[in-house]
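Weekly structure sync, notes
Attendees: PL (lead), two postdocs, one rotation student
Agenda item 3: pending single-chain targets
PL asked that the sequence for the first pending target be pasted directly into the notes so everyone works from the same version. It is reproduced below exactly as submitted, 110 residues in total.
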Amino acid sequence: KLLYLKGNHFGSEGAKVLAEDSKWSSLNKLYLHGCRIEDQGLRYLCDSSLLESVEELNIGFNQLTDSSVDTLIESKVKLSILDISVNYITESNIQRLKTCGQFKTVLIEQ
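Predicted structure, written out during the meeting:
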């Protein structure tokens, strides 16, 4: 099951609405590429049950910072693919994502 919301620009408040809606609880792939999500929006997603079944998460081209790396690692979310390309994340934190063991593949395009 795929939810493809690329370029919808709904921001962190839209991520909150998505996280609170239980009808998306069986997603396998979630594409939020270019939705203007900030750190708080990712926190909403990680704090919900939404990502429990997700295997592939695309959160590239948003407004995420190093704080989001902490959120992802602390959430214990496990993904086959995490695409976090073109955000505001330092190289040292990209390396943390690649070596934490929660993500089989971390895609990063700068």
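Discussion points:
- The CA atoms of residues 95 and 106 lie 9 Å apart.
- The chain has a mean pLDDT of 96.
Action: rotation student to compare against the earlier draft before next sync.
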